[in-house]
């Protein structure tokens, strides 16, 4: 059973994604963990400005609808992989924020080390995964290892996934990824971002650890750490 407050929060953040211009048409989805085996999620094929409390689905880890009148979104497979790999994660948000999506479409990853606050909040970077349709072993081989090392991942041509201890934290991480992408894109007009020194990044990562946000370094991207 989904608590009324949980339904209210999912509806609120769904509509907030639309207000911020992160989604168009039926883009985007949100979910939150209810128990070890059940989750609340937005329905598929619905604009996010039209998601209300009565529309929220209760599903299991395989995406089977336990209560609700609609189907779950196809990207539930990505949400479920994150929940399986991160017991501390209780919410996942997916959207297509324009600047971050543009960075991904350009096949670029983002280091966060031009903005100190971003290093503390997101770690040293936001990695990029190539998109395959349907999602194939190639996609999963890239994506699966990342959940242990990051709290947000860009997917080429498919926006951003972010996650956290609750919907607010997952949403705010999405907001920061988009803000960071916009700053980076705009900075290109002025010669590009100037990154902090490795020593400064290490100091900020210590602050991240002190805040209880630290994750294991990604062995595939040692230069970021």
For this entry, give a set of tags:
225 residues, 36% helix, alpha+beta, two-stranded antiparallel sheet, L-fuculose-1-phosphate Aldolase, 8-stranded mixed sheet, 16% strand
Class derived from helix and strand content: alpha+beta
Number of alpha- plus pi-helical segments: 7
Low-confidence stretches: none
Instruction: State the oligomer.
Output: single chain
Strand order of the largest sheet: 4-3-2-1-5-10-9-8
Mind telling me the C-alpha Rg? Answer: 17 Å
User: What is the residue-averaged pLDDT?
Assistant: 97
Number of discrete domains:
1
| Portion of residues within helices | 25-40%
Walkthrough of the structure:
The chain has one domain (4-215): Class II aldolase/adducin N-terminal domain (L-fuculose-1-phosphate Aldolase, 3-Layer(aba) Sandwich). 36% of the residues lie in helices and 16% in strands. The chain has seven helices and ten strands. It has an eight-stranded mixed sheet with strand order 4-3-2-1-5-10-9-8, with helices on both faces. The protein has a two-stranded antiparallel sheet with strand order 6-7. Helix 3 crosses helix 6 (167-187). It is globular and about 50 Å long.
Would you kindly provide a brief summary of this structure?
The chain is an alpha+beta fold and 225 residues long. The chain has 7 helices and 10 strands.
Topology summary:
Layout: H1 4-19, E1 29-33, E2 38-41, E3 57-60, E4 65-67, H2 76-85, E5 91-95, H3 98-105, E6 110-111, H4 116-122, E7 125-126, E8 128-129, H5 137-143, E9 152-155, E10 160-164, H6 167-187, H7 198-210
């Amino acid at each position: 059973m989904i608590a009324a407050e949980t339904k209210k929060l999912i509806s609120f953040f769904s509509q907030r994604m639309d207000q911020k211009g992160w989604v168009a048409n039926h883009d985007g989805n949100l979910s939150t963990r209810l128990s070890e085996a059940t989750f609340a999620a937005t329905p598929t094929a619905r604009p996010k400005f039209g998601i209300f409390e009565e529309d929220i689905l209760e599903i299991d880890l395989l995406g089977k609808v336990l209560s609700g009148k609609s189907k779950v979104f196809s990207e539930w497979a990505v949400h479920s992989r994150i929940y399986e790999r991160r017991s501390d994660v209780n919410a996942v948000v997916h959207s297509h924020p324009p600047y971050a999506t543009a960075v991904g479409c350009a096949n670029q990853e983002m280091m966060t080390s031009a903005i100190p606050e971003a290093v503390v909040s997101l770690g040293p970077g936001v990695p990029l995964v190539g998109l395959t349709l349907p999602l194939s072993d190639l996609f999963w081989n890239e994506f699966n290892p990342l959940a242990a090392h990051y709290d947000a991942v860009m997917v080429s041509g498919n926006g951003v996934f972010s996650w956290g201890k609750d919907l607010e934290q997952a949403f705010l991480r999405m907001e920061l990824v988009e803000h960071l992408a916009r700053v980076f894109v705009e900075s290109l007009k002025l010669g590009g971002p100037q990154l902090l020194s490795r020593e400064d990044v290490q100091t900020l990562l210590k602050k991240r650890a002190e805040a209880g946000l630290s994750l294991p370094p990604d062995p595939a991207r040692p230069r970021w750490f």
